[in-house]
Design goal:
With 493 residues, the protein is mostly helical. 73% of the residues lie in helices and 1% in strands. Strands 1-2 form a two-stranded antiparallel ribbon. It starts with 6 loop residues before the first strand and ends with a helix.
Length: 493
């Protein structure tokens, strides 16, 4: 999420209220007031909240047209655009896509960055926008090479901006630590001011009240840790692109990550964020191991050891939903990578059952983690967790098809399909409660596909207008085999 840095001022009678904003500060005040209205309604009325936020953006935009050098107007406009893009309920109220809003936010951030190139907040936020755009580019395994190349470029630019942000933060932290405040002198000056209360006339007092000031939070180790974690997370996403875009980049990735992970370990000692850092480091190590495995630099046994070591910390997994879900994702990624290598390398007949044993084992472990996550209190994104559970059952089901013909999968075909259908149906119900429209549609579509594989094509026909896209996505994710697609095609004709 973007770093928030709003401006505040005393509540005064607005000199130009009847004329609308006339100065940069008045545009800023009006925009902030509109933002506060949006925040008030964010949880309850998404439509009303989005209208307030768009009003704020319009005010910042109008202010910039008259005062193009106002960093505060540029910063607030850019930050708010990105903030909206990260909230699906708000975005659903707007006639624009996530990608289009992110592109607007990036353009706005570049303007703010041009006005103040050494501002740590705008450096950090610009990098965040770039990473969000990069993630959109690589969603789904069927993404074309041009988009993956664009994603890699955006991730790399984000890394550069995070590094600049970190340099600014470290400089500011060092400056703050080196400064000493003479408290007695400060008290003396304050007392002297009290002794001369009338040295400022009414006009000067009014002018002081009308002054605005940016609320700049002091730089702490937590701020440096925020940036370091963001770098690790971006580097984790780069891992998935290295194989297709730059296979020779693996040694660079390893060299670049080493000091980054060391810095995170050092900074966390001054905070209480050990679990957060451990999780980001674990995710990177698993992503790096997966990349090394896919490029032939790591064998399967070593890959499993790396995964076990990455999540084998002192953190209690049963205390963290995110920990359980991320570990489940790591298990699923491992099974997918085994599947990719078996398809490309055509292993010997006596080796394939052993590989299938490993896949079945880790998919079962992933299901166990996801199930445990749903039982924790106050679980966020339950719809996504149930979608993932349905995916796991379909991945196990697919092991019973060619070329694996895995015995356990074949024996449990009916149960696996029934479980997947139940999980997708549950995901749709939770998505409706959470007002997560995209997740609800995805869950309903996938439930219809699985229901059809179970012999009931009624739901499949209900969602005819959008089902083909779902089938293509499920095929690309390895959730449907050729035999299944042929069966579905017959039912649709």
């Amino acid at each position: 999420m973007p770093k928030r840095q709003l401006l505040r001022a005393n509540k005064l009678k607005e000199k130009h209220a009847q004329l609308g904003p006339q100065t940069a500060n008045e545009y800023l005040a009006a925009g902030i007031e509109a933002e506060e209205g949006g925040e008030k309604w964010r949880a309850g009325d998404a439509a009303k909240s989005s209208r307030f936020f768009m009003r704020a953006i319009d005010l910042y935009k109008a202010g910039l047209e008259r005062f193009p050098d106002s960093f505060d107007l540029a910063y607030n406009k850019a930050r708010l655009q990105y903030d909206i893009s990260q909230h699906p309920r708000l975005l659903a109220q707007l006639p624009t896509s996530t990608n289009d809003l992110l592109e607007l936010a990036l353009k706005s951030h570049r303007l703010a960055l041009k006005l103040k190139q050494d501002n740590a907040d705008v450096l950090f936020n610009t990098a965040q926008v770039l990473t969000s755009l990069g993630e959109l580019r690589v969603e789904g395994s069927s993404t074309n090479p041009a988009e993956r190349d664009d994603a890699l470029n955006k991730f790399q630019e984000a890394m550069e901006l995070f590094q600049r942000c970190l340099a600014v933060q470290e400089y500011q932290l060092n400056e703050a630590q080196s400064m000493t405040i003479d408290v007695p002198m400060a008290d003396s000056l304050a007392n002297e001011a009290d002794d001369h209360p009338n040295t400022r006339g009414p006009d000067s007092q009014c002018r002081e009240e009308e002054q605005w000031a940016s609320i700049i939070e002091p730089i702490t180790s937590d701020a440096l840790l925020d940036t370091t974690i963001a770098q690790i997370e971006t580097l984790t996403m780069i891992c998935g692109l290295i194989i297709s875009q730059d296979p020779a980049g693996l040694p660079w990735l390893e060299d670049y990550s080493r000091p980054l992970l060391q810095r995170a370990t050092s900074l966390v000692e001054e905070t209480d964020r050990g679990q957060e850092v451990s999780l980001s480091v674990a995710n990177f190590k698993c992503a790096f191991a997966d990349t090394a495995f896919r490029t032939g630099r790591l064998d399967l046994r070593s890959y499993q050891e790396e995964l076990k070591f990455a999540f084998g910390t002192d953190v209690d997994p049963l205390s963290s939903v995110q920990w359980l879900c991320d570990r489940a994702d790591a298990y699923i990624t491992l099974t997918a990578s085994i599947g990719s290598t078996t398809q490309s390398a055509s292993p010997k007949e006596d080796v394939l059952p052993q590989l299938n044993d490993v896949q079945w084992k880790y998919l079962t472990k992933a299901l166990a983690d996801l199930t445990a996550a749903t039982k924790l209190p106050n679980v966020p994104n339950l719809a996504k967790i149930h979608l993932r559970r349905g995916d796991c059952e379909l991945l196990r089901y697919c092991l019973g098809k060619a070329p694996s013909f895995y015995k356990q999968a074949i024996q449990n075909t009916t149960m696996l399909l029934r479980n997947a259908e139940i999980y997708y149906r549950g995901a749709a119900k939770f998505a409706k409660v959470e007002m997560a429209g995209p997740e609800e549609a995805e869950a309903l579509n996938r439930e219809a596909v699985v229901s059809s594989l179970n012999g009931d094509s009624g739901k499949l026909m209900t969602y005819m207008d959008r089902i083909m896209k779902t089938i293509d996505e499920m095929r690309d994710e390895g959730l449907l085999m050729t035999e299944d697609i042929d069966c579905l095609a017959q039912q649709l004709t």
